[in-house]
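Title: Comparing notes on inverse folding

I've been comparing how different people in this forum approach sequence design from structure. To keep things fair, I'm posting one structure and asking everyone to reply with a full sequence. Here's the target:
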C-alpha cells in the first residue's frame, strides 16, 4: 500500500486473532481517538490456543485503530490485514 493511499483508506478488513488467553474475555477494535464501543469483535476463553474472527474496522483520524482487551488476563493479538475500503478517486 502506498503512503499517499493511506489518506484515502477509511476502513480495513482484517482477521483478528486472540492467542493464548490467560482469562476469558473479548477484544474490541475501534477507530483510534474515538470512544470505545460496547461491542466485541472476538470472544475467547482461557486455555483455548487461538480464536479468530473476520472484522471490518473504521480508521481514526490518524489512520489507525485501537484494540481493547476486555479480560482480566493477558492475550496475544494478531491482526492480519486482508483488505481495505477507500474514498473517492
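Reply #1:
Here's my take.
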Amino acid at each position: 500500500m502506498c503512503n499517499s493511499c493511506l489518506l484515502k483508506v477509511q476502513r480495513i478488513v482484517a482477521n483478528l486473532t486472540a492467542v493464548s488467553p490467560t482469562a476469558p474475555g473479548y477484544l474490541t477494535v475501534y477507530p483510534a481517538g474515538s470512544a470505545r464501543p460496547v461491542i466485541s469483535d472476538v470472544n475467547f476463553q482461557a486455555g483455548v490456543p487461538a480464536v479468530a474472527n473476520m472484522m471490518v474496522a473504521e480508521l481514526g483520524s490518524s489512520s489507525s485503530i485501537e484494540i481493547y482487551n476486555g479480560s482480566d488476563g493477558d492475550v496475544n493479538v494478531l491482526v492480519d490485514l486482508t483488505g481495505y475500503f477507500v474514498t473517492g478517486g
